[in-house]
Design a protein that fits this description.
mainly beta; Jelly Rolls; 4-stranded antiparallel beta sheet; about 45% strand
């Protein structure tokens, strides 16, 4: 037991040095699915510094019908879009096993979006996230995307 204490201390120190405190973190629940016209918005009031990392957080359950997800994400400042991306993320392994963390039927995926992002625009910033999933052979998107339990955003300092 006494030999394990130094090793345990080293592991805890290594884990704590890798983590960075969030400058911003917020989540919005989507209890009845995520509608095609339901844009999730987050307002970030504070200045972010010279360099920030952005992460999207998606929680899904077993009702989610796809192995991936398509998102459209905009950052606005003073009603002008200063950043816009169309993104695709894997949500499941090829064998159907869900990606993400969690011990129950709900899995949370922390999805990297922007690394070392900076802007000259002044806050507040509005980050808008919309789903853009399509079923093969259909032109229209999914009116209601089932199985997405919540959508979130976190921002950390990249200066650590």
């Amino acid at each position: 037991m006494n030999r394990a204490l130094p090793f345990l201390g080293f592991v805890l120190l290594a884990l704590s040095s890798c983590s960075s405190e969030a400058l911003f973190r917020a989540d919005q629940n989507t209890p009845n699915g995520w509608g095609l016209d339901d844009t999730v918005s987050f307002q970030v009031d504070q200045a972010l510094g010279e360099s920030s990392n952005f992460y999207l957080h998606l929680r899904n359950n077993q009702d989610y019908p796809f192995s991936n997800i398509f998102l459209v994400v905009n950052v606005k400042a003073q009603d002008s879009i200063i950043e816009s991306d169309t993104l695709e993320y894997a949500m499941a392994k090829p064998n159907g096993e869900w990606l993400g963390s969690g011990f129950s039927s709900v899995k949370e995926s922390k999805l990297w979006w922007k690394e070392q992002w900076s802007t000259a625009a002044e806050p507040p910033y509005t980050v808008e996230i919309a789903q853009a999933n399509r079923t093969n052979g259909r032109e229209q998107g999914e009116a209601i995307l089932p199985g997405i339990v919540s959508v979130g955003l976190s921002i950390t300092s990249a200066e650590n």
